Amino acid sequence: MILSQLKDYLRERGQATLLDVALHFGIDPDTARGMLEIWVRKGRIHRRMATASCGTRCSQCDSAATEIYVWGEAPGEPVRVPGCTH
């Protein structure tokens, strides 16, 4: 995966979970995280965790699905994981 492809993917979507990125590019979540961290260090992507309750009450959500990367300025409000009911 080329960093510019990752940039284009997130710019187009606005945000994506670590799992979404890994599945889209056919790579392991740790590899995706390493690539995303390059953009985080440059200040172009911001890492967020899902709302406070997700992943703390039932622990059923995959941590890769609750780690969310947002393109652009750091958002001020919590991010909700699509499909999570917790």
CATH superfamily placement: Winged helix-like DNA-binding domain superfamily/Winged helix DNA-binding domain
Under the CATH scheme, which class?
Mainly Alpha
Average pLDDT: 79
Q: Give the SSE string.
A: HEHHEHE
CATH topology: Arc Repressor Mutant, subunit A
Radius of gyration of CA atoms, rounded to a whole number? 12 Å
> What fraction, in percent, of the residue positions are helical?
40-55%
Descriptive notes:
This protein is α+β, with helices and mostly antiparallel strands and 86 residues long. It has a single domain (3-71), classed as Winged helix-like DNA-binding domain superfamily/Winged helix DNA-binding domain (Arc Repressor Mutant, subunit A). Helices cover 42% and strands 15% of the residues. The chain is built from four helices and three strands, in the order H-E-H-H-E-H-E. The protein has a three-stranded antiparallel sheet with strand order 1-3-2. The longest helix is centred in the middle third of the chain and has 13 residues, at 29-41. The N and C termini lie far apart (33 Å). The mean pLDDT is 79.
Would you spell out the secondary-structure blueprint of this structure?
Elements: H1 3-13, E1 15-17, H2 18-25, H3 29-41, E2 45-49, H4 63-66, E3 67-71
Antiparallel strand pairs: 1-3, 2-3
Helix pairs in contact: 2-3
Features of the shown structure:
single chain; about 90 residues; alpha+beta; Arc Repressor Mutant, subunit A; three-stranded antiparallel β-sheet; 3 strands
Structure, briefly:
The chain is built from 4 helices and 3 strands; from the N terminus they run αβααβαβ.
